[in-house]
Design a protein that fits this description.
Helix content is about 35%, strand content about 25%. The protein has about 250 residues and is α/β, with parallel strands linked by helices. It is globular, with a radius of gyration of 19 Å.
């Protein structure tokens, strides 16, 4: 088996609040291989968000080791860390984090302004258009956020995460602000991206959403309490087809 793209060994993250120490993550050991689609689950305070921040190189562990594609993250300085993060990782958040007075295409281009080496204007344009087309929004690239639905805004956010061509996509509660049908559509997009070879790690507290993933890691009190392969994975494209059929029948009734 190939070397995991993410390797955690006895990872601990402790925060200090005054004189009180809080162990948000308690000795987590976890491997994630290329091509996996992993849901990290748990209730509020379980440690899943802290673990995701560590995997995303946004936080450093108090102890233990974290290797991202074989590189010991703790040994990197700030510049090296930013370069590794920009090259390897893409981020999708619950709240979209789009600039309101900026077009979809301009929002998608933003990460490329911080790329090393720098990306030319022509390449930025081509890559942003390609990313928007991949998420089904090529024709709406000139629209501002206020002109897009919540699902479309999340698709723009996913395109922005893809434009740097990352190996790993990190999604933090990506359907938290969406209705049921739109959530299924977004999970269908994630499944398509995963089928194309992108590794996806997603934080969620919703079992219905985790059911679309290939693997489910459950945390409680900062520890992994279960790590299972999802043998009954839901297929979003099939569910959307059923919804479409039901809507057509309703129109004809």
């Amino acid at each position: 088996m190939s070397t995991p793209v993410i390797q955690l060994r006895e990872l601990v993250r402790t925060y200090k609040t005054g004189e009180v120490e809080v162990k948000a993550v308690r000795g987590v050991t976890l491997d994630i291989h290329r091509g996996e689609f992993v849901a990290i689950m748990g209730s509020s305070g379980s440690g899943k968000s802290t673990l995701m921040n560590t995997i995303g190189c946004l936080d450093k562990p108090t102890s233990g080791t974290f290797l991202l594609d074989g590189v010991a993250v703790a040994n990197l300085d700030r510049k090296q860390l930013a370069k590794l993060r920009n090259k390897k990782l893409g981020f999708v958040f619950q709240s979209f984090n789009l600039l309101a007075r900026t077009s979809a295409q301009e929002n998608v281009e933003l990460p490329l302004f911080y790329s090393h080496p720098l990306v030319t204007l022509r390449d930025r344009h081509e890559r942003s258009v390609q990313a928007l087309e991949k998420v089904g929004l090529g024709e709406r690239r000139g629209h501002h956020s206020s002109q897009l639905s919540g699902g479309q805004q999340q698709r723009v956010a996913i395109a922005r995460a893809l434009v740097s061509r990352p190996e790993v996509l990190l999604a933090d509660e990506p359907t938290g602000n969406l209705d049921t049908r739109t959530s299924i559509e977004i999970m269908g997009l994630f499944q398509e991206l995963n089928e194309s070879g992108i590794t996806i790690v997603m934080v969620t507290h919703e079992l219905d959403i985790a059911a679309y993933c290939k693997r489910m890691v459950v945390m409680r009190d900062g520890q992994v309490i279960s790590d299972t392969v999802n043998e009954k994975r839901r297929v979003a494209r099939d569910e959307i087809a059923v919804l479409n059929q039901a809507e057509e029948k309703a129109k004809l009734a």
